[in-house]
Amino acid sequence: MRAQTADRIATGFFYAGAGVVVLILAGLIGYILYHGAGAIDWSFITSPPQNMKEGGGIGPQIFNSFYLLFLTMLITIPIGLLAGIYLAEFAKPGKITEGIRLSIETLTSLPSIVVGLFGLLIFVNYTGWGYTLMSGALALTVINLPMMVRISEEAIRNVPMELREGSLALGATHWQTIWKVVLPSAFLSILTGIIITSGRVFGEAAALLFTAGMSSPPLNFSQLDITSPASPWNPFRPAETLAVHIWKVNSESLIPDVRRVADGSAAVLILVVLFFNISARWLGRSIHKKLTGQ
Q: 40-292, which class in CATH?
């Protein structure tokens, strides 16, 4: 009886803790959406910001955020996945493996402002690129890569050994087993890691202040020459993201409707992250069903 009572009390504490977290999250999201939803309309989402007069929008900042996400994950996913496969399937205990794990743990604990200063020194000044999308993407890769490696490794390690043994017993090679059996089985966990790292791209501001910059040139979507400074597809141009724009508006903006722009920008950022997470999870489950036939 005492064991059952203790179990019920412990379960109650667990539910209470989870409830508190959900309430805090719901309150935070609700507060942001309540204050910012009124500012969101098509003009606000598509028009460029204003420097001195009211009525500006966040169109270039939204595009820059998505483009930066694409560039960052284009670098992070292949490297992180390959490193995770190596650590889970091929790495043997030794000094090299210990050095790799120590490097991953060290990079995971670095503050983003330190990564931003590192990016300013290497990607902005040393390369001569200046404040560019590519500099920001490489800085965010430094932040996201350790997490991507760890999540990929854990997802691959959690695949039951029986699946590997069954594949090898049927005559498949080690690489065929990894590609055809292990990765599809670990797909949902790996996708979760991609979602988590992608969310950090949208929310990161400190590192991008020193790498991608706090300004965005007028974007001409009819300009298809990727080397042109006016081309939105040029990765070597300054690009203020939505998170950086929120910080800039709240800290130094002189526009009369600063509160409207800040609240609306924060609400859009929350909605984009929620939509991206929900869509990615739905897509991941759909792909997993097709791959496994379940």
A: mainly alpha
